[in-house]
Amino acid sequence: MLIGRCTLSLRVLVLMPVGSCQIAPAYAQAGKEIWRYFMSQARLAKLNYTTYHQREAYVTVLHSSEAYVWGAIALAQSIIQKNSSKDLVLLHDKSVSGKSLRDLRAAGWKTKWISRIRSPFAKKDSYNEWNYSKLRVWQLIEYDKIIFIDSDLLVLKNIDEFFFYPELSAAEQNYTTYHQREAYVTVLHSSEAYVCGAIALAQSIIQKNSSKDRVLLHDKSISGKSLRGLRAAAWKTKWISRICSPFAKKDSYNEWNYSKLRVWQLIEYDKIIFIDSDLLVLKNIDEFFFYPELSAAGNDKVLFNSGVMVIEPSLRKFEDLMLKSFKVSSYNGGDQGFLNEVFTWWHRLPKRINHLKVFSKQGDKEHQVGDNPYAIHYLGLKPWMCYKDYDCNWDMVSRHIFASDSAHKKWWQVYDAMPKKLQQYCALTKHMDKRIKKWRRIAENASLANGHWKIKPKDPRQYHIVDNK
User: Which residues form the signal peptide (predicted)?
Assistant: First the structure.
């Protein structure tokens, strides 16, 4: 049985936790993130800021008697004989004697005492009365993933490869299936410029019949009115305190992009797919929750784009990322550069799940979106920042590589299908309208060959301009 990080419900319900003292004391104080102030330069110097390596172990449990001691010894030896590189951890209660513990340690087990847990529905003195003690494995938060093995098993081949599988993976049985808690997540911070994008994103996911939750993290820059619209669009909203990117320039576009790291704090979910709010989902992508952390589509041969990522939330991982953020630089000053430095070993999603709207090939005048993408990532000026009639990236020579009327049309199809009450959150602001008209004039004066400046706009939003947000 493959088990991931400790879940919140078990931490609350199971008392006397194993290893709970290993949670950073500074972090645990009333939930305040005062780790930034507790990290002295001397301590930072001792930390190893190399690539993140997942900590993994084989685990078994002995309780209530010593009947399985020799089975556990044989199990450990069978794993070692097959050249496993993982830790071996044995949880035990007071029924295991000192002599037996010495033999178990000699066999290769790291032993850890637990208080056994009674099975609430088992009969007194039955063979399974204390079998719920196995639940203690979820308290081993010093590991990111474990493979639990009963002590009456023997390993005949190296099975380290199965740590790749997600929680909860097990050999098939005719029992009720464990349902992993999963959600799509996006983040809004620092301004309301992407509220419309987030609403369209949620609606595109819903229109493709996804069964997963949708969670939106936001800071104080998002107004009450916008939050009502986001909730009406089916986001579960959650307030966060934004995080400054240590290597970004002040007032730059990516100054607060490290706020995206908050997704690792969503420990009420086993796995999430993070999606930037300037994406649109064109096909149901629930199947990609099967992928492990960290999975993403490539930006090029070696780097990934952080616009879509499969993540397994963990407070320990979040703390680890925060500590690394002081030392590990980002090639672009933002979250994408940082995450590529930390997760140098990542799993590749198909590019169609994060189809970048960029056209760099010579001779491609139409900029048609091909290959039947699962989701489009709208680089450049966003669709809701243009007139509905055409992609206004055509009006700026420097942004021609981002222009695509076919991609633009797909976004507006989702807009047209969403409830009317949500469309108001995509209104044109005075600033947007002024910028569009300015660049249409410049394109006309330059007689740009694409000719989009000749199109007479029919977008009804141009007659209902709102104040700048």
Answer: 1-28
